[in-house]
User: Fold these one by one.
Assistant:
Number 1:
Amino acid sequence: MALLPILKYPDPRLATKAAVVTEFDDKLKQLAAGVGLAATQVDRHIRLIVIDITEEKNDLKVLVNPELVESSEETKPWEEGCLSLPGIYDKVTRPAKVKVKAQDLEGNFFELECDGLLAVCVQHEMDHLEGTVFVDHLSMLKKQRIRHKIRKMRLEEERAAKEEA
Ligand code: NI
């Protein structure tokens, strides 16, 4: 499995809207095997997300060109985190259940009914394809605090790296 570097917030490339996938070729399959989550996060701006919510990591769901078909009126707050924002967690309220239409790696259409953690993950990853990260759902004030915290963490990391050198 290829490990691609993950873009870290607030990298402007995370705000890119991903393009529709039209070629279901080997390149797409290779990327699906390497992407942890949304292709956007590894700087590939195509509509591809890969999700595995199992602890054993044995139920990989690949969604190409995912589209929301239905969202429940019922909403639910969930503490979210993101590989692009290491160390940052906050509650985001989203529809509790969603139905998604997507294509598999061969281009076949399928539908997926999601609730619980899967519903959260699917919506979180689909957001990435629109150039949105979970902190964009938070208040301006919270977002400012998070950006401040990230800057501080980065400075500390740089300092630690210098001391090691
Ligand atoms: Ni994420």
Number 2:
Amino acid sequence: MVNMRLAFLGPPGSGKGTQARILAEEKNLAHISTGDVLREAVKNVTELGKKAKSYMDVGSLVPDDIILGMIKEILRKNKKGFIFDGFPRTAAQAKGLENLLDDLGLKLDAAVNLVVSDDEVLRRLLGRFYCEKCGADFNVNTSPPKVEGICDRCGGKLLQRADDREEVITNRLKVHREKTKPVEDFYRSCNLLLDIDGAQDFAKVTASILETVGRNRS
Ligand code: AMP
């Protein structure tokens, strides 16, 4: 799987970030989360961060040309295997990615689609916290900290992501339905879409992804 190129789709809170991180580590692939790249840019107040912040604050998508410019740079440094997490998010981004890969003589192997209901997304995201000091993730439903509001690892304060408030989550789900569903249709029409039940127990989701991606490759 060393040279495998995958895109992880699925609504916010579907577990795509965590699953992508695990698979990337296990298979020695680069894990590329556009959300993480953008959050880092916002934190460091770079030109990219300044352009992206107003969209991210309200749960809207950052414009396609900004995202595709960012991906072009990233692909230049990652010609081997990778997992995109949270990209592509629009049909234009999916087509743009195809063109960028074409130019490099590469292609995507599969789009892994984690399927989770809106109610489950809301439950998961409202319970999600991260440590402001070391970045460790917690979830009051599945992996609560030993002491409320305090990081088990370093004692740092636990915070909620600014876009994990209920009204922003509702908008992110709406955006997902309107903009990202066509991405599923695009990959389904190219026979690259692999649907995975993301509501299963966490370890089962990992096993299903490994099994389905492996089967599809052979
Ligand atoms: P995420 O961490 O993937 O949920 O992304 C957080 C926010 O970053 C999203 O709500 C968008 O505002 C922005 N974002 C991340 N990836 C993309 C993308 N591929 N296209 C447009 N906006 C994105």
